[in-house]
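Why run this: before we spend reagent on co-expression, it is cheaper to look at a predicted model of the complex and decide which construct boundaries make sense. The entries below are exactly what would go into the expression plan.
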Amino acid sequence: MIDLQLLALLLIPLLGGGLLAVFGSRSWAAELNSLMSFLTFAASVVLTVRVIDSGPQVAFSEQFFIDQFNVFLVALTAFVAFTTSLFSRPYMRIEQHHGKLTTGMLHLYYSMYQLFTFAMLIALTTNNMGIVWVAMEAATLTTVLLVSLYRTPASLEAAWKYFILCGVGIALALFGTILLYFAAERVLGQGGTALLWTHLNDVKGELEPTVLKLAFIFLLVGYGTKVGLVPLHSWLPDAHAEGPTPVSAVLSGLLLNVALCAVVRSKVLVDGSLGNHFAGNLMMGFGLLSVLVASFSLFRQKDIKRMFAYSSIEHMGLITFAFGMGGPVATFAGMLHMTVHSLTKSAIFFAVGHAVQKVGTQQMDSIRGMLQVSPTVGWGLALGTFAILGMPPFGVFASEFLIITTAMHEYPWATPILLVSLGVAFAAIFGKMQPIVFGETTAKPLPHPPALVPVFVHLLLVLMLGLYMPPYLADWYRQAAALLG
Amino acid sequence: MHIPFTLQFINLLAALLLLVSFAMLAQRRILSLVNLFAWQGALLALSTFIVAYSSNQHHLYYSAGLTLLLKVLLLPWLLHRLMRKLNVRWDVETLINIPTTMLFGIALVIFAFNLAAPISQLAEGITRGLIGIALACVLLSLLMMLTRRKAVTQVVAFLSLENGLFFAATSATQGMPLVVELGIALDVLVATFIFGIFFFQIRETFDSLDIGHMEKLKDD
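The model came back. Tokens follow.
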């Protein structure tokens, strides 16, 4: 039984949200935030160990379902949420010192941070496709006020766009869920079990294909908006660029993964029902388009956070493509890429956040010579850039290599598109980051020491995954890939 | 073919729902728009009640009550209050003129019926053929969101979109499980509150609720 572990995992962030809603303006709120995030992470580790030992399980009268696939995302989410909370402690204090944030805004930030973690964990662990929808919407609601935290005209515009676009997108996902229920009800009967993923998975062969086809289109468009798939991505660069950096890090590193998890769960059902590769093909198409459009958009960017937001779209496209291909190797590669992308991208946002604080602007033309200002920030940026561009020996190289070789084997026509996009992305990001890291500087010192330990911990993990994958981890991913088929 | 009375009644309500959606699309005054939204909620609550009665699904009675409370009373009241506080009663400017919008709307309805045709064939009992209308309501609300400039109107469109989805859930499937419906209702309520907070922030920053001011973020 995993009831107790699961309960701890879900109740700790909820409790954290409640505590920080009360004590959010105290001077130790940042420490409390980190503590609650650490406890959540600890609970996720315990849960992970249990699930890897004893396989997929349901809990609380089947309302929750944990298997190797979602427990991997749970562990990743809890870990990055914890390291981001460590990063945000000095970062937000510096912002307050610079007069950009008031205590009231920080109060909102801390309690919403915990509730956002809670919403993501619910979305990952629930077995009920309806609750997935509710939790995804809750994740939007908790972050929308964080995107507009600075109350600048640009941040309000970004938040409004985020709210409306994701609201509409997710409404379409609800229509997809209703259609799914409509099809399921005819097989499983009225009532509670017809939306439970495990039950749907058991009877997926009997579900009405025409309905599921339409349902998947709505689900993909809906949740795809949150994943940031082109052409539904226009909220993402704005929200990432205008929100506070810790929020950009968790949106990019975590929320996109959680939304993609919902798409993958739907894909398993739909392709099982149709008996062909309809859902997979759609995902591959959207994925390729995202990779292509995002990498060519990288050239036009002037704002450093915007550029890395486009890089997130590119990588999410790549992961969507990998899951769309399906099969044990591609799914394995997709999961590995999810892991390394989350770790690397959040590390980059941490380093970028401190670099921007030193220079006082996000315009790349004005950020110069970070290596001179602060070797740690400079190296963080340099190594993070190398890692995200897929340089060996970092883990991103391993997963991209796996994805491309599988594509060569199964869908040769897609390989040139992928290679060109990755090449273009490399040229764009490398060209823009080179003078930022090296060159002459104009920066000023910070009032609080920056938190760069999380940056290097993340990059070290990514490096490790590139050089040596521990056998139990490889086993774990392989089992998860086998479950998804 | 004998058609039971309840089904006829639900079909009538569905037609009225579509009519209200069109009326909202054509409406220029925000105040009347909110009133129409309340009417839409009332029709929705009534149709849910009838589905509950005819199919003997007890949890649908709760849904109907919840709809009545939330969408006919609470949300319109909140919106009215917001408009009084923000003093926005003036006419809405649309991006495309109203007759053209209506033509687009008719095209969308035809599209929705075509899309839903294969599904409607599968529906049993009292719910056959209503999915098309629900989908049409959803698409009309989307159209309204695209063509309006005022933040308040966009929110009313968002809520009416949710009404269309709710109608799809009750008419096509006789209601989602109660826990899901409660979750959705909670999300909608919280979303409305956040929209309210936003209105104040937007007006404070831009001195207006016209979202035309918010088209500055571009890639360049």
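The beta strands of chain A are 57-59, 64-66. Chain A has a mean pLDDT of 90. Bring this page to Monday's planning discussion.
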